Amino acid sequence: MGVANKMSIAYGALNCLLDQGAEVGFSYHPLAAKRAEKIQSESGSSFAIECDVEDPKNIERFFQQVEAQFGKIDFLVHSIAFANTEDINGNYYDVPKDGFLKAMNISCFSFTSAAKYASKIMNENGSMVTMSYYGAEKYIPNYNVMGVAKGALETSVRYLANDLGVEKSIKVNCISAGPIRTLAASAISDFKKLLDWHENNSPIRRNTTITEVGNNVVFLASDLSSGVTGQVIYVDSGYHTIGVKGKDSDSI
């Protein structure tokens, strides 16, 4: 869920899953309809269905269409987040209630809602994966309400892992990806500085790619991760392990 364009993390996941022989369809926001049609045609994915997750009825309808297409499913990948630009930048305490609720609804509750409907048509030992970022647990400039929403998303993963694990042995995990130049990231002020800092200070001294995230989606969606659930998996070139600026990193 959430393919926006060829730079999106969801697109990386889609391609990696297809490369490993999975049968995959995807959802897209109504504003991305033309791009989604082209991506479906070029990728050979099974379907592309519009879904605006701000309305829970759209999510329910989406999974009804998925069931009509596939019957049962083995995995769900959720890669959807949004906050108003003015609510990301500036001071967190300036975020108005409606902006806060919008960010939480799209970036966090949409996964909980999707998990509810997906679980009804998911096979035993299935897998659900969503996407987070390090700003969920540490302060990141110009991330603000999105960091709070991602924090709630990561907590949701742990609760869903228990609920769905007990009921159907479904795994629920989260990937915390390093900063990647996506459409969503374009709303973050000074994002280029964030990329440069990450590249200069991560243990392997480079940024993360959508393919690297996608490969980890494949792992979590497969039986190779059968004992992994309720986890936040970092795919960030090791940045989350660093405490201070690297001694040999370039000045920024």
Automatic annotation (TrEMBL):
The organism's superkingdom is given as: Bacteria
Q: Where is the active site?
A: 133, 143
Which transformation does this protein catalyse, written as a reaction? a 2,3-saturated acyl-[ACP] + NAD(+) = a (2E)-enoyl-[ACP] + NADH + H(+)
Positions with a binding annotation for substrate: 83
Q: Does the keyword Lipid metabolism apply?
A: yes
Q: Cite the Gene3D superfamilies for this sequence.
A: Enoyl acyl carrier protein reductase, NAD(P)-binding Rossmann-like Domain
Annotated metabolic or biological route of this protein: Lipid metabolism; fatty acid biosynthesis
One of the GO BP terms on file: fatty acid biosynthetic process
Q: Which UniProt keywords apply?
A: Fatty acid biosynthesis, Fatty acid metabolism, Lipid biosynthesis, Lipid metabolism, NAD, Oxidoreductase
Q: Which InterPro entries match?
A: Enoyl-ACP_Rdtase_NADH, NAD(P)-bd_dom_sf, SDR_fam
**Which GO MF terms are attached to this record?**
enoyl-[acyl-carrier-protein] reductase (NADH) activity
| Enzyme class, spelled out | oxidoreductase
Query: Which EC numbers characterise this protein's activity in its record?
Result: 1.3.1.9
Detail which positions bind NAD(+): 2, 8-9, 52-53, 80, 150, 180-184
Pfam families with a match to the protein in the record = adh_short_C2
Q: Which family does it belong to?
A: Belongs to the short-chain dehydrogenases/reductases (SDR) family. FabI subfamily.
Task: Fetch the PANTHER family from UniProt.
Answer: ENOYL-[ACYL-CARRIER-PROTEIN] REDUCTASE (PTHR43159), ENOYL-[ACYL-CARRIER-PROTEIN] REDUCTASE [NADH], CHLOROPLASTIC (PTHR43159:SF2)
Q: Please report the name of this protein according to its UniProt entry.
A: Enoyl-[acyl-carrier-protein] reductase [NADH]
